[in-house]
Amino acid sequence: MREEVFHYRLANPTHREIMSHTNHGRKLNFAPGPSALPLEVLQKAQSEMLNYNGTGVGVMEMSHRSAEFGEIVNRAISNLIDLMSIPPNYKVLFMQGGGTGQFAAVAMNLMRLKPGHTADYFVTGTWSQKAAKEAEKYGKVNYVLPHSKRFQGVPHSNTWNLDDQASYIYFCSNETIHGVEFHDIPRTNSDIPIVADMSSNILTREIDVSKYGLIYFGAQKNVGPAGVTIVIIREDLIGRAMPSTPAVLDYKTIASNNSLFNTPPCYSIYMCGLVFEWLASHGGVAAMGEKSDLKSSLLYEIVDSSRDFYHCTIDKAHRSRVNVTFRIGGANGDEALEKKFLEEAANLHMIQLKGHRSIGGIRASLYNAVPVEHTLKLADFMRDFQRRFGATEC
């Protein structure tokens, strides 16, 4: 165990946070989404459930046209701008339809930025693959990377096929299913707008928003409950939608109505606002980045030192910090052993560790609301499980 982790354990005894959760009958939740929310945020929402800020009604009962809800929206936007240092020439939009809705919205709003109606897509996992397929309905998709049936990382840039006449460049910064993450923006030699799906790693590290034309993310992993999708878009890209774009997917319509064109997912927006306040009070994005690196390294160090008892197929340069995926019992996995692992973890109140149904194995999702202490407990269990069922010790 690394020295800094040892000192962290001394300063923050594992049982403290765990007991805080178990005293409330709560599990240690490693779900990939919808995922864990900070306990403090849930308690705050609970205290305001019946009577928000003296209004005599809860947020779920409140008119989206009311001054009180308008204040909730504006405060959430302002807090996100502060957290991410969003430049003044960008708009923050609250939309519906999830990340899947944005697969179409991005293409319908941006595909016609240039005459060729072409977009460059980096396909590094299931979600970018789905996004590219959806975009094909609205223009030509240029697949930047060589075709592969297995997603294990990002191929070297000398294999990339970029179109210098593309309307935009699209990538998913973190693929939750396979556990592939871009640790920086794809390097290109053009001024073509870059679009990023950051649904699963937003606010887990600092980024320079000015390098992107558009960033979007579903709330249900690091930001809040399911139901709202947040779009951060540079103003010069607004108002370029194709005529057939539905009003609820048109960025100009949503921006000009301050996200209140139709009834928005009011409670989800309110919860996002509480999460933004929680993040600010806990050191902001920089602090979350440090914890994200620490949590993921705790598990990867066990995997890498296990002599293939735990096996991660993802290239080390592109391993996700927020979705740690691995097999147990070798590269192909021993399903019986993995089932035993999940059963024992559940007995220790650790849930949602099963890998995605399409690839199997184990997946630990380490979003911002998952405390370091919970990850330490999982790490301890992994070591113990190998001692009991592995041929060698880690």
Q: Could you outline the blueprint of secondary structure elements for this entry?
A:
Layout: H1 3-11, H2 14-22, E1 28-29, H3 39-47, H4 67-84, E2 90-95, H5 98-110, E3 118-121, H6 126-135, E4 140-143, E5 169-172, E6 174-175, E7 180-181, E8 194-197, E9 214-218, E10 229-234, H7 251-256, H8 266-281, H9 284-304, E11 310-311, E12 323-328, H10 335-347, E13 350-351, E14 362-365, H11 372-389
Parallel strand pairs: 1-13, 3-4, 3-5, 5-8, 8-9
Antiparallel strand pairs: 2-10, 6-7, 9-10, 11-12, 12-14
Helix pairs in contact: 2-11, 3-8, 4-8, 5-6, 9-11
List keywords for this structure.
3-stranded antiparallel beta sheet, 13% strand, Aspartate Aminotransferase, domain 2, 394 residues, Aspartate Aminotransferase, domain 1, single chain, 7-stranded mixed beta sheet, 11 helices, alpha/beta, 36% helix, 2 domains
